[in-house]
Specification:
This protein has 79 residues and is mainly α. Helices cover 62% and strands 0% of the residues. It is globular and about 35 Å long.
Amino acid sequence: MRSFPDDLARAQREWSATYRRLADHPDRTELRRRLHRLSTETYFHPHWERRRPRPAEWWALRDLGRSAGSEDQTGRLDR
């Protein structure tokens, strides 16, 4: 598996967690905004500066975020 910078891996883990929370609470605007910000942070990360990633690299990054999701089920919605 490919190694990713810590901040990129963190952004992807947060993206996956936010996506799961948004699925449970689709009416939460702050979650949609957070998902958009994390999508931008992930897509335009300096790690991809030299060239855009191949599909396999995107899948590896997404799998990293998904695998962390089974460990991090403690996220709570802020009210």
